[in-house]
Design brief:
CATH class of the largest domain: Alpha Beta
Number of domains: 2
Length: 341
């Protein structure tokens, strides 16, 4: 399947500069770029060989198109044209969001729409962070924190204009300490941002689910935006029923306050390893892996939330203890408190 990268970031954060640099790189010749408007990425200096409808083929070999009716239709159309030989094959897709976009709906389309998931896979969410203005923007625009919160990779821009402030590092640590970080001006940054990486990357520091909240470490909170990052190790493998039960409990309890979650879980019945993802109210089909993707063989879960108390989040983890055959429509009150000891 073709890997898809979502490029997000607030107004003026440097997304267009990144895209322009990428479109001139020979290594990215076989890339399809989806933008909202052609004019936003300044194609005038990038020679256009030919075009049809909303798709243009750039001299560098990249495809560029605008979102037609909807994102899933645009992606399906690109795949259809590729199969029919109407456009050259492409190795990756980069989707640029608007500066005010909240990435949740885009991620749910990429993770859950059959027209997309049959041919594409979400590789990473890349978010541009403006070293010059991000601190001020975080305090006035809710979209900034939300974009940072769901990122897999953060790229710091405008470091040539201002040094990296300790206060900004602290805010990024609080909102999303788990995302890999890159300097836009470092050699090789484009390859690192939009190349293959640790797709199942989860943080190395976790809190055991059985440890009381008072003794927790590794917890990060951005008080200004009420966003927190929590990482847990489950005490033992879960069941398919346990996964379904937790999904039901979490969506009922938190809804859109659960900005994003990712987990690597071992299934008790079969020993299978699965990768799970959820964005706000929608949890997507688990992805079966051939084995553990790293040396850490513990079932673990990362949650980025907004306006969710740590104890409230931790209480939902007991749903993973649901035995096989448990009905999925469970409530938090259906699970015994003693599981939290």
């Amino acid at each position: 399947m073709v890997p898809v990268f979502v490029l997000s970031g607030f107004l003026g954060s440097g997304k267009t500069t990144l895209l322009n640099a990428l479109l001139k790189e020979p290594a990215f010749a076989n890339t399809a770029v989806i933008v909202n408007e052609f004019g936003e990425i300044g194609l005038d200096h990038l020679l256009i060989a030919r075009g049809s409808d909303n798709v243009v083929l750039l001299d560098a070999g990249c495809l560029c198109c605008t979102i037609a009716e909807s994102l899933h239709e645009t992606l399906a159309d690109l795949n259809f044209r590729k199969v029919r030989g109407e456009i050259p094959p492409f190795e990756r897709v980069i989707i640029e969001t608007t500066g005010l976009a909240v990435p949740g709906p885009i991620l749910n389309t990429l993770l859950g729409h059959r027209l997309v998931t049959d041919h594409y896979r979400l590789e990473a969410v890349v978010v541009a962070v403006d070293a010059q203005h991000a601190l001020a923007n975080l305090d006035v625009a809710a979209e900034v924190a939300l974009q940072i919160a769901v990122a897999d990779r953060l790229v710091i821009t405008k470091r040539d204009l201002v040094p990296m402030q300790d206060a900004l590092v602290a805010r990024l640590d609080a909102i999303n300490p788990h995302a890999a970080r890159f300097d836009a001006h470092d050699a090789g940054a484009l390859t690192a941002l939009f190349g293959p990486g640790e797709r199942y990357r989860l943080p190395h520091r976790f809190v055991h689910a059985g440890v009381r909240a008072a003794n927790r470490r590794g917890l990060h909170v951005d008080a200004a935006n009420r966003i927190r990052a929590d990482a847990f190790v489950l005490p033992h493998p879960t069941t398919w029923s346990g996964i379904a039960a937790w999904w039901g409990v979490a969506s009922t309890e938190f809804g859109d306050r659960l900005l994003r979650c990712k987990g690597l879980l071992e299934i008790a019945e079969t020993g299978e390893i699965v990768f799970v993802q959820g964005v706000q109210r929608i949890f997507h089909a688990p992805e079966r892996l051939s084995g553990w993707p790293d040396a850490d063989h513990r079932s673990r879960l990362v949650c980025i939330t907004r306006d969710v108390d740590a104890a409230e989040l931790r209480r939902t983890l007991r749903a993973f203890d649901a035995p096989a055959g448990t009905p999925p429509a469970m409530k938090l009150s259906d699970f015994p408190l003693e599981n939290l000891q």
